[in-house]
Amino acid sequence: MDEKMRELSKLITIVENDPLRGREIVSRLEKREDVNVIGITGNPGVGKSSLVDRLTGCYRERGKSVAIIAVDPSSPFTGGSFLGDRIRMKRHFTDEGVFIRSMASRGSLGGINDAVFDVVELMKAFDFDIVLIETVGAGQSEVEIAYVADTVLLVLSPGGGDEIQLLKAGIVEIADVFVINKSDLPGADALEISIKAMLELSEHTGWIPPVVKTVATTGEGVEELCDVVESHRRYLLKSKEITNRRIRRMKKHAQHILMNKLMRIMEDLNVGDLDLLVKETLREMCKEVKE
């Protein structure tokens, strides 16, 4: 790892452990705005890490530098990253054009942790062309990635009950691209039909999420997936939707910052202060209801 990547690693550690100091550092950095931030989400076991590995290889062949954020479940003892998905990306360890960072979810139900917002900004400042964010794989509640990424890939696999998941609202609605990984297994065609049937019943203006079949273990379909992601990027720029997504990201980030500050204030309050705060809050709520 060269000196520049060591510096990035140190800054990410600061952002994770001291968010306020990290925010000050990030706000002073000059950042690129042409970086494509891609989120990869889906249930555990669908092959997200293997797909990220293949996508990285595809982008490197196209001359793009890639930064990867692999969000893992937290250790119940240390709070640190538990699975270490970097193991599946070991062929990129010696590639100077690839930076890989595992991050703990720290109990977040949204599949990422609060630090991801600023970590993405750091990676933009360090001149990466592509940022890939692999979420923890929390299931239906894992929608936070839509506030961080420009393009969201929802990875499904045949035979895993994903046909039933498609009938539920929530995570399916955030997908810009549906990826059927492990498409060499029985049931892939049926899953594709289910997705397309669902899309026909849904309302879409502009971009209609395409369905791409991949086999991450062999690389099949990954080139096509990269092309589709690039097509979505062009759509975002042409339609100006990229601006709307950035505004949404800033609002969500601000919300996270305010909530963290509020939690710190709450931690410093004693029982009497908390009791008074609850009473005042309830009084204001009742006043608003009456008005």
SSE order in H/E notation? HHEHEEHEEHEHEHHH
Strand order of the largest sheet: 3-2-4-1-5-6-7
Structural class by helix and strand composition: alpha/beta
Using the CA coordinates, give the radius of gyration. 20 Å
The CATH class of the largest domain, by name, is Alpha Beta
> What name does CATH use for the topology of the largest domain?
Rossmann fold
Give a count of the beta strands, DSSP E runs of length 2 or more.
7
Q: Could you tell me how far the N terminus lies from the C terminus, measured between alpha carbons in angstroms?
A: 61 Å
CATH architecture of the largest domain: 3-Layer(aba) Sandwich
Helix count from the secondary structure assignment: 9
Q: Can you tell me the CATH superfamily of the largest domain?
A: P-loop containing nucleotide triphosphate hydrolases
Anisotropy-based shape: globular
Structure explained in plain terms:
The protein has helices at residues 3-17, 19-28, 48-61, 116-125, 162-165, 188-201, 222-239, 241-268, 271-290; strands spanning 36-42, 66-72, 98-104, 130-134, 151-156, 177-180, 211-213. It is α/β, with parallel strands linked by helices. It folds into two domains: 3-239, P-loop containing nucleotide triphosphate hydrolases (Rossmann fold), CATH 3.40.50; 241-291. Strands 3-2-4-1-5-6-7 form a seven-stranded parallel beta sheet, with helices on both faces. Strand 5 (151-156), helix 5 (162-165) and strand 6 (177-180) form a beta-alpha-beta unit. Helix 1 (3-17) packs across helix 2 (19-28), helix 1 (3-17) runs antiparallel to helix 4 (116-125) and helix 3 crosses helix 7.
